[in-house]
Amino acid sequence: MKRWLYPLYKKTESFKQWFASRFTPLGKNVLFFCSIAFFFGLNVQRSMIYQLFTATVCVLFFSYLFTLRLTTRLYIRRVLPQTCIVGTELRYSILVENRGERAEKGLFYREALDLQLPEKGEFLTVKEEGEERRNIFDRKMGYYRWLWLLQQGRMAVAKDTFLPEIPAGGLREYEIRLAPVRRGNAHLTGGHIGRVDPLGLCKSQIFRDNPENILILPRVYEVPQLFFQGARKYHQGGITAARDQGDSSEFLSLREYVPGDPVKHIDWKSTARTGKTIVKQYRDEYFSRYGLILDSFTAQKYSAVFEEAVSLAASILMAQDSVNSVLDLLFVENECVTCTMGNGLDGHQRMLEVLASVNTCATKPFAELAALVHSHAALLSGAIVILIDLDEERKTLITSLLSRKIPTKVLLLADVAENFKEQCSTLDFPITILEAAQVEEQIARL
Amino acid sequence: MKFPPLLLTAALLFWGLQTDRVFIALLLSVVLEGERLVRRKYDLGQDDFVKISDLTSLLFLGGVALILLNYEPLGFLRITTGWLPLILAPLMAAQLYSTGDTITIGTRLGSKKRAHIHKPLDFRLYYIAVCLFGAASGNSRSLWFFPLLVVILGLLLLANRGRAFPPVLAGFYLACSLSFGYLGSIAMEKAHGYVMQNSFRFLYRYYREQHANPFKTHVNFGDTGRQKSSGEIIMRVASASPPPLFREAAYTSFQGGDWFGNVGSYEFLVPEDPETWHLVKAPHLEGKNLTVELSLPKERGLLPHPGGSYLLSSATIFELEQHENGSLKVVDGAAVVTASIAVHPEMRLDGDIPTEKHLVVPEEERYVLEEVQKMLNVEPLSVEEKLAALRSFFARDFSYSLNLVGRGEYSTPLGNFLLQRKNGFCEYYATATALLLRSLGIPSRYAVGYAVSEWSGLEDKYLVRKRHAHAWAEAYVDGSWMIVDTTPSHWFAMDAERASAFEKLGDIFNLLRHKYTLFQIGSGRDYTLFYSLVIIVLTTFLVIRIYRRMKLERSVFSTEENMPRLFPRTWTPFTPVIDYLMQSQVFRHTCESFSRWASRCCSWKDFDEEEFAGLYAIHLQVRFDPHGADQEALSILRGGAEKYLKQIKEMQDEESKAPGA
Description:
Largest sheet of chain B: 7 strands, antiparallel
Radius of gyration of chain B: 42 Å
Low-confidence stretches of chain A: 235-247
Structural class of chain A: alpha/beta
Number of strands of chain A: 17
Strand content of chain B: 15-25%
Number of helices of chain B: 20
Radius of gyration of chain A: 30 Å
Largest interface: A-B, 49 and 50 residues
Oligomer: heterodimer
Distance between the termini of chain A: 47 Å
Largest sheet of chain A: 6 strands, mixed
Number of strands of chain B: 25
Structural class of chain B: alpha+beta
Strand order of the largest sheet of chain B: 10-14-17-11-5-22-21
Low-confidence stretches of chain B: 211-215, 552-561
Shape of chain A: elongated
Order of helices and strands of chain A: HHHEEEEHHHEEEEEEHEEHEEHHEHEHEH
Distance between the termini of chain B: 39 Å
Strand content of chain A: 25-35%
């Protein structure tokens, strides 16, 4: 049935967009009341609703007639930043030049965003989150799935901005607000310039082509800085990760050997004296190197849990000390990806840009991520693993990291924490479960 | 969306005037507009709004129940719409007396854990619309209706007009539009009149039969067939084995597709006692009793009864008339008539004898009757043999069907039935039989009534539905009228196959309603007032419960007043500079400092951003610091202000000298 409904929903959405572009909120309501008055006012002897119908239908008709023609010679240039953040209102300005011979007033401006309607295949195969909880009628009709897919494709929400009077030949600058709702690359195709008719019911609108892109970065929460006890600090060698650091080998102190410490730093005299393996520490521009491992393996193309996992990863890397440590971001999308952030390397901004574009991986096995982590394990002083599911493969990865004595913090994102509590109680490593809906509150306790 | 002041009051008064509820409208206006006088408002959350929504739903359901009890079901929608402004007033008041601009409509009824919540909305527009629809449903036919409607619509539309247009232009445009609206309403009235007039002919027969002819003075061809699609229960018969056919009326003359003859000869039947009537003069043979419960929504109509009925007892029939052919007319009765009827097959009405009319055959049907007569060839046979031959003729070649489409070769429906189609429903069989009997010299008549065959285990009675309507012929043989039903016997089962799948469910509701009506009639009292009071008390109780719960949770008034913080205008030497800059149309960026913006506003000859920022800081200190600024700072401010004012004056002079200024 969905196969037949797809063109209907597509047409309906196009109609809705046209309807929204031609009628003001008051106009929409008046049209609604007019339709009701038509149905209930047919019998002119039973009630006087027909007079309501004729009055509303005439004002709507004349309003619409008035909006059929709009000519302006306005030219618009956008002053747009390169990036913005999900959930944080973006404010930027536009420069409007009136090249006409008369002053323009009563106009409003709205950004036109490229809204990709769901593809037919996508509509037929991709399931809405929580669709199984809907009743059979809703599941068969798939309307909620359609709405959900539309919502997934909507990158930002634009609203009408009123433009005060622009004199003939004048150039004015106005502030525009845009609400980013999803991370990724948002394409602004241009802007709509409109005017409301004298009765405030309909709008006339023209489109000004002005394509531009803006990268929407993932949402970032407040996260405490994570570090691991017994990490490999104050050792030579880490400087290789940093291009612009000087070299220093000033002795700092002695401490007990920790697995992973280079054998050449063992102080044999002290070892002989104390009977314990002692290593030397140097005051060096060495950076602790952490791995931030992001699990992207889910069959769903759009997943709220994965979105929160990305936000969590972004929050963690934003909170990390990029002066005294290096952070490797490891994930698998179409291929294995490793990005490194730290002093002298790419900064927070670059990492956020990478995270803004990361997608789920449904075509590759989890083993690819495991192999990537294993290949990097020798470099890591600690690891933060963000999981979106818990199965044997994932458990094996954590166990192998712990067996290499790499301090590991495991964060599991879940729809409902209760679903994993029993499974987690049997694990031999600590794991923190965060509920996707309450990440902001729970993340502060990390 | 903007709402001009007192628009709600205007809409409410409009509703009150049009529906004669001016007092209620005034009261509601005072309550709703009173929010302007109240300085402190309730801080209502989503949960509170859901409770108020539930409260309004209860009021609505209570209102609906009261309307159903007190008014005819036909006008239910119109009357409910008329009361909606009062019913929805709590929601409107909740929005106006809360700190927010919108309300959240939702419900927790039926689900304790999760409320169904819609998007927040500004309810004012919907409430105004409800008032307008309520006013229109009053159907006052007042000439003031449209002008008042124009005023309310005009106020709303002018307040929300496009900013590019002056009020005068918008007003003119609005006046033009609404003038066309008025002409449109006149045109709609005319069009309605035209459609009604032209469709009258088509609807005439329908209305005549359904509403204007409760005593069925005549029937036209197809009346019984039209009832076949309805499963509505109209009669219940309590008896172990009732006669299969209950006659409602009998007709003598057939003309142009109509049967006539059930008019004129009804006579008032004198009761033996207030609840007993002798249908046949005593002495009576001892027969069996059956009880009939007949629905008579108009409290008058024909009473179907079996042949041989001789005694009728009923406490719910107040006046009865009887036709010379035995048909009974309830002239005054209850909405549901319960009658006990004594029946013996041999009891006959003395005056029910055939006349010459019972042998008249219409000229236009003579050709077909002669044709059939030739086919039957029964002239030499006895009356009983003729009847048997007729029955076998119809049983042999004819079938039952309700689906008769298309025109036949013959000029009359009867001709097409007997000579071409050879299928039809009871009316065809009864008419053909009655006329054939007459052509064979046997007095006959056309009878309509109901077949009593459907047993209901639920009610322990026989049910008679509309689709059980039946027609048959009666022949006068050996001094009495004999039923000659030639319709194929499986007609009842075939009609039952067309029944709706939800018929049984409908029967349950019908039974409940029937029992309630019987209770109402049996008690002899009108319980409407009592039930109305019960509904009012229960609704009030629930309303108080919800309100108390709400008050427990939100008993604190919001102390926050949504008033902008205003500061007195304190003049400093720097004020004229700021006033001048404020007139500039240069856009100030978010987070841009005042001094940076000032530097961009004008083409200063001598501008020091740091100095300007310092001067602005002193200006703010003078305005907002309770201790003010010291003399030294003030002298710096004066000096700086003079410097910039001088530059401003120069710029203004240059502007005025510029060509085209």
